[in-house]
Amino acid sequence: MTRTPLILATLALSLLLSGCGSRSIGNKIDDQFIDPEVSANISRAHADLTSPSSHIVVTSYNGVVLLAGQTPRSELKAAAEQAARKVQGVRKVHNELQVLQPTSVLARSNDSLLTTKVKAQMLADSSVPGSRIKVVTENGIVYLLGLVTHLEANHATSLVQSVSGVQKIVKLFQYTD
């Protein structure tokens, strides 16, 4: 598939889903471009940030960027954050990188399963706006991003607490009330 049809398909899908939340179509499109820009900036910041000694997950929601994963040295953690802050459209950076060796493939598989379990629970519970909450799991830690009310955030947090395997919950919500 060439780049132009892929971009058009992405824009069409974004238009279809634009009624599914309180973010504008522009915010949704911006987020789709922020992640790869931040990743590219981090790659250029230091070779060790893309080497097997680091595992960095970049996620954005409404211009708020989450850096999660592991890197072996604190100066690399700081370099990743600085690189992320330089990207146009980034409003805030939550640097949750841990100064550790990267997690194993098994741990990452467990994280994926945990994210799936959390999202499934959210979609099954009408008190939680699952379509407006992004869930990222890294090393057993569940990060929650989204535009929600305080009540919705509390419901989501309670729901996540009930999911087996969650080590910790980090709320990075933007509140609408």
From TrEMBL:
Native organism: Pseudomonas taeanensis MS-3
Sequence ranges assigned to domain BON in this UniProt record: 30-101, 110-177
InterPro entries documented for this protein: BON_dom, Lipoprotein_DolP, Transpt-assoc_nodulatn_dom_bac
Signal peptide location: 1-23
Keyword Thylakoid: no
UniProt keywords, alphabetically: Signal
Keyword Signal appears in the UniProt entry: yes
Matches recorded under Gene3D superfamilies: 3.30.1340.30
Name of the protein in its database record: Phospholipid-binding protein
PANTHER family: BON DOMAIN-CONTAINING PROTEIN, OUTER MEMBRANE LIPOPROTEIN DOLP
Organism superkingdom: Bacteria
